[in-house]
Structure formats: C-alpha cells, structure tokens
Amino acid sequence: MKLYITAGSPYARMARIVILEKGLESRVEIVTAQTRLADSPYYRINPSGRVPYLIRDDGVGLEESVVICAYLDHIDGKPAFDLPAGDQAWEARRLEGLARSMMDGLAVWGREIVRPLDERSPTVLEHEAHRSERMADLWEAEIGHPLMRGPLNLAQITLACGLGLEARNPDLRWRPGHPKLSAWFDRLAARPSFAATAPPGASVTTGVPPDQESQETFGSGASWRP
Ligand SMILES: N[C@@H](CCC(=O)N[C@@H](CS)C(=O)NCC(=O)O)C(=O)O
C-alpha cells in the first residue's frame, strides 16, 4: 500500500499514527505529495489533490482520514481504535465530532496564515482564532471524560493532531488557562507514534505553504512521482 501525505498535515498525521500503532510500517509505503501546486503530478494520482490518500494493495484509492484510519485499523482483523458500541457509542461520536470540529477550524486558520500577506483575510484569521479559544475552553472541561482517558481511540488521535498544530501556527496558543488539556496533550505527544509524526515547525514568514515546506520523503524513500 501507499499512503500519500504532507509532513504538516494533521489529517495525514492521523493515518501515520495508526500505521505506527498497528505496526504496519512494512506494509505501507509513505510518500510525500506535492499539494497546492498548479499542475502537480500528484493530481494524476489523486484528483482531489488532498492528503491523506491511501492506495490499497488492490490499487483502489481511499480518501478521508477517518476512512483511511478505519481501513488500516481493520486490516489485521483486530481493530483497536473503533469507537465503542452500546451506551458509549453516541458519547464517543460526540467527542470525535468535537475534536474534528476543532481540527477543521485550526486547519483553515493554518492555511490562511501561509497565504501572501495581501491575500490573508483578517476576518478569517479573527474568526478562527476565536473559534480555537472557545474550543480550547470546551476541551478543558471535557478532557477528563473517560473516553479521552482510556485506551487510544480516534477521538483522542483527532484532538491531539489538532492541538499539535501549535507547532505550525505561532498565533495558536491554546495552552494558557487550560492546564488539564496541556497535561493531557503532553502525555499523548510523548507516545512514540505521536513523537515520530510531530509536525515540523512553522515558516509562516517565508510564505511557504506548510503543505509544501518539506519535500522530505518518509518511509521507504520512494517519491510521489508516478
Ligand atoms: N476531510 C479531509 C481533509 C484533508 C485535507 O484537507 N488535507 C489538506 C492537508 S491538511 C490538503 O490535502 N490540502 C491540499 C489542498 O487542499 O489542495 C480528511 O479528513 O482527510
């Protein structure tokens, strides 16, 4: 299989974490894609141009981090990250939805800060900054939930990948006033699969989109070129 990623993508990081957690490194080649580039050859592989994108062994491509994570998790027939069923099912989905909502907002913010200065929208920047503050307050209250403390699951992975965008956005300061969330994040960030996939630091002053900062190829060293 091949997983197309960029080093800074929080969505791709989720899939990379699942690969490491499930010990699938030898089965999945990780390839850096050139996103957000006119006429990128990557568009011939994945017309949407987004990452993550998984090409299965049968040649079929999968998009969407949640779908890819679930597929990788189920490959060995022993899924570890499925959200629980029964009484906890809606709680788990509620938490995963909140984590996804925060991450989506942070991703929009991250894209805005790497546009050329005269193309950045102050309205979007302000809107996303305020959303992140509200979501950090919300998570400070929710982070004690048993599902956020128990065995690793998709809600935890999503939230941690979102919060990890602090490395990419100097204006994202979710830690002050949120000691429980900070302690939770630091504990998870120390886990080997999270440490190995930590996003590279920001270079917003250069105006280089984060998706294109690193041309480093992870894993086997193969390139994205068809
Ligand atoms: N909903 C998608 C979001 C994926 C996404 O937005 N990826 C960004 C990188 S963080 C991307 O590929 N952007 C390139 C583009 O928009 O052309 C998922 O969960 O996988």
Describe the structure.
By secondary structure, this protein is of the alpha+beta class. It contains ten helices and four strands, in the order βαβαββαααααααα. Helix 4 runs parallel beside helix 7 (154-163). The longest helix is centred in the middle third of the chain and has 25 residues, at 89-113. The protein is globular and about 50 Å long. Residues 205-226 have low confidence and may be disordered. The protein binds glutathione. Glutathione is lined by residues 9, 11, 35-36, 49-52, 64-65, 107, 211.
A few lines on this structure:
By secondary structure, this protein is an alpha+beta fold. It has helices at residues 10-21, 42-45, 65-74, 89-113, 122-142, 146-149, 154-163, 179-189, 192-195, 210-213, and strands at residues 2-5, 29-32, 53-55, 61-63.
Helix percentage: 40-55%
- SSE succession: EHEHEEHHHHHHHH
List the ligand species. Answer: glutathione
Low-confidence stretches: 205-226
What layout of secondary structure does this protein have?
Layout: E1 2-5, H1 10-21, E2 29-32, H2 42-45, E3 53-55, E4 61-63, H3 65-74, H4 89-113, H5 122-142, H6 146-149, H7 154-163, H8 179-189, H9 192-195, H10 210-213
Parallel strand pairs: 1-2
Antiparallel strand pairs: 1-3, 3-4
Helix pairs in contact: 1-3, 1-7, 4-5, 4-7
Bound molecules: glutathione (GSH).
Residues 9, 11, 35-36, 49-52, 64-65, 107, 211 line the site of glutathione.
